[in-house]
Write a structure and sequence with these properties.
Elements: H1 2-27, H2 30-60, H3 66-127, H4 133-148
Length: 149
């Protein structure tokens, strides 16, 4: 069975090669090239005429042309890119805001600790009367007098 498939494949390859040779023989000439060139030029002229007629018809009926749709599609792409950029900016701003909020919370906690510390220190200072410089000097004088005797 395998040999039958190979024979069939080989047969079709030979047919393909023969057809390719015939096509190449008929198309590989200057006359054919000129004829194809003329046909393409004629076709392009017709396409241009149909395009102008279609554009005029659409303009008279106040309908969008292919070029207007293309411009609109390009503008839509630009707007989508701007929206994506704004979305990315908002995302970054939100992340920065979260980080700043955490830092602010830490600062508030530190301030509360300092406030508590300072309040307790002030309370301690008020509960123990502050000695004036004069009182301290008197105490020092007494100490020196004791040392002398």
């Amino acid at each position: 069975m395998n040999s039958k498939q190979q024979d069939t494949i080989q047969f079709y390859k030979q047919i393909e090669a023969e057809i390719n040779k015939r096509i190449h023989a008929r198309t590989n000439s200057r006359a054919f090239t000129k004829a194809v060139g003329k046909a393409l030029d004629s076709h392009l002229r017709e396409v241009r005429i149909y395009k102008r007629l279609t554009t005029r018809w659409l303009n008279r009926r106040n309908l969008a042309t292919k070029d207007e749709f293309a411009a609109l599609a390009n503008r839509k792409i630009e707007v989508v890119e701007e929206i994506d950029s704004l979305d990315e900016s908002i995302y970054q701003i939100i992340n920065l805001q979260k980080a700043n909020q955490q830092k602010l919370t830490m600062v508030r906690e530190s301030l509360e600790e300092w406030s508590t510390f300072l309040n307790s220190d002030v309370t301690d200072q008020r509960s123990h009367p502050v000695k004036t410089l004069e009182n301290e000097l008197q105490e020092l004088k007494k100490l020196f007098e004791m040392d002398i005797y």
